[in-house]
Design brief:
elongated, mainly alpha
Amino acid sequence: MLDSEMRGFLETIAEAVINAIPNLASNMKQEEAKKLKVKNNDDYLLGYAHGAIMGSFATTFLAENKRPTNEEEDQQARDIVYNRTDEIMRAISKTG
């Protein structure tokens, strides 16, 4: 089970990634989307945000706990991130 410190850290990561979406979206509107052959920027940004949050969290969890997350912890982390999907999508939609 994730403790309050790890849950708080996950929320902090999520907030940082959400705040970085305008910059990432700006880059995707330029040449990056063409290079990556992205067909739908919004879908790409959503996947990127989820991956960045989960990847950062998994790396930090491993470093702090000297083990990877177990199935229950991984599911709890995903639930926290999935619960912020609407917020992530709103940030993406504001980028135009």
